[in-house]
Amino acid sequence: MRERRATLAERLRVQAGHCASLGSPLYEGLLLRAADDATAGGPLWRVYEGRDVAAADSAPLALMGAVHRLVLTDRAPGLARWFPSAAIAVGSEPEPTYPAGAWPEFLAVVDGLHDDVAALLDHPIQTNEVGRSAALLGGFLEVARLGLPMRLAEIGASAGLNLRWDRYRYEDAWGDPASPVRFPAVFAAGGRPSLDVPAIVVERSGCDRSPVDPTTEDGRLTLMSYVWADQVERFARLKGAIEVAREVPATVERADAFDWLAGRISRRRPGTATVVFHSVVALYFSSDERGRLASMLADAGGQATADEPLAWLRLEHRDTGDPTAPGWSRLGNPEVRLTAWPGGEERLLAVSGAHGPPVRWLAG
């Protein structure tokens, strides 16, 4: 029993470190205190008692998503005042957060709504980070330079919010000026792609093992609950992207990535550029699966023509190569890479933050 508590506590502390490095002091503080409570066998541990915590790498994110969902559905009013997302969700200005003050209310929710929290731990974790559209923007515009309409095909699309990337506004220079999703600063000092390229998207499709419909209330709550509650820019962007999703159709099918992709890239559409893309998906594939994906696209690229090109755009973490580093700790910043056929040339375009901006543009 003590060993299982220690395992859970360690997972919570590791995630607290990630939250600290990625700018969420609220979640860092709550997770550190949750780790202490788990070690002591308190209410936090009782929620997990009977579960296989050794296999649950996602346990901390599941916990925070469960409690956040209760806040967003008005089930935890005492905690809501400590969660800036609760104010944004209803159109109010968020107050400053103080992690130490939030902990007693957080623990009260875990203890008082024990059964609700436990049930929500089994909810599939689904995020759709809209900020990654900003990281991918330069790659899409490189394809747009070909002057052809684009067919988008996204692997691991979640709710398909990044399939609407062209309906967002970037640096007051590209995209819809009236969009509710705005990126006032995307590129770090030192360079950026030319933003004077128009882009036409004629098809938006994706696949996911557990797709989310952002136009439903359940889908909206699922997506919002897994955004860290004190990261107000991320939360506001997500809220805006859900508004866009209601206006701009995109199809996300429940399907295996390889079966689905085989069907997409085998369809001929002369006069269009097919863009297969994904973001922070490859780390969930085995090395064999990553090789299979590259081979599938290379084979399809061999059939590409100037009138029907194929592009493979991805935003994926670079493995630092340290086998002793646990989980996410061995991953470097995400890199934006583009491979285009005919030709099959691969280019490193940019390096970004984990949630998108700032993007350091590297290509000429």
What brief labels describe this structure?
eight-stranded mixed sheet, globular, 364 residues, alpha/beta
Radius of gyration: 21 Å
Order of strands in the sheet with most strands: 6-5-1-7-8-9-10-11
Q: Quickly count the helices.
A: 13
Tell me the structural class: alpha/beta
Protein described:
This protein has an 8-stranded mixed β-sheet, with helices on both faces. The chain has a 3-stranded mixed β-sheet with strand order 3-2-4, with no helix packed on it. α1 (2-21) packs antiparallel against α2 and α2 (25-40) packs across α7. Mean pLDDT is 91; it is low at 323-329. A hairpin with a 3-residue loop joins β2 (169-170) and β3. The longest helix has 20 residues, at 2-21. The termini are far apart. The protein is 41% helix and 18% strand. It is of the alpha/beta class and 364 residues long.
Summary of the model, kept short:
It contains 13 helices and eleven strands.
Tell me the layout of helices and strands.
Layout: H1 2-21, H2 25-40, H3 43-48, H4 59-72, H5 77-80, H6 84-89, H7 99-112, H8 114-120, H9 132-144, E1 150-155, E2 169-170, E3 174-175, E4 182-183, E5 201-208, H10 217-225, H11 232-247, E6 251-254, H12 257-265, E7 273-279, H13 287-301, E8 310-319, E9 331-341, E10 345-353, E11 356-361
